[in-house]
Write a structure and sequence with these properties.
The protein is an alpha+beta fold. It has a single domain, classed as Aminopeptidase, CATH 3.40.630.30. Helix content is 28%, strand content 38%. It is built from 4 helices and 7 strands. The protein has a 7-stranded mixed sheet with strand order 1-2-3-4-5-7-6, sandwiched between helices. The termini are far apart. 30% of the residues are buried.
């Protein structure tokens, strides 16, 4: 029998270069075709807004946000499989939305696998709407999987 992990307070903070090994480990445990250690390092070096959820001194989730020209793109948002369904994903998404709002972003975008129903439910709960599909976007066993594109308006433009 698997003992469920109880919810323990966690906090969100900026990702540091020292977090990349833990983040990469979570990525590898979460995805069949994970981002490499170098991709996370490059995101930090490029100045992307990167955040982690930390629980009892350990990183249990992360997000990567690109901001440019009044728009933002959530490039990656993931919670360690052992810590899912404890509210950490929602907390991390709230922080990313706040960072985008602080950057005066008007619209925020993301792609998600249509098969990732729990993530889609969270995005819809937070006001994202499905606006398009990208055919054969993700690597998948035996071929490619489409991506559902979601967006959310954060700030109304004047005029």
């Amino acid at each position: 029998m698997i003992t469920p992990i109880r919810e323990i307070p966690a906090h969100v903070r900026s990702m540091l270069h020292d977090d990349v090994p833990e983040v990469s480990d979570i990525e590898r445990r979460s995805y069949e075709f994970p981002w490499s250690h170098g991709v996370f390092r490059d995101c930090l070096l490029a100045g992307y807004q990167c955040a982690v959820v930390e629980r009892e001194g350990a990183v249990v989730g992360y997000a990567v946000l690109s901001v440019a020209a009044g728009e933002a793109h959530i490039l990656n948002l993931c919670i360690d499989p052992m810590y899912r369904e404890l509210g950490y994903g929602e907390r991390l998404l709230d922080e990313i939305l706040s960072l985008a709002d602080d950057a005066e972003v008007r619209e925020i975008f993301l792609e998600v696998r249509p098969s990732n129903e729990k993530a889609i439910a969270l995005y819809r709960k937070k006001g994202f709407r499905n606006i398009a599909y990208r055919p054969a976007y993700y690597q998948a066993t035996g071929g490619r999987e489409d991506a559902a594109v979601f967006s959310k308006t954060l700030k109304k433009t004047s005029g």
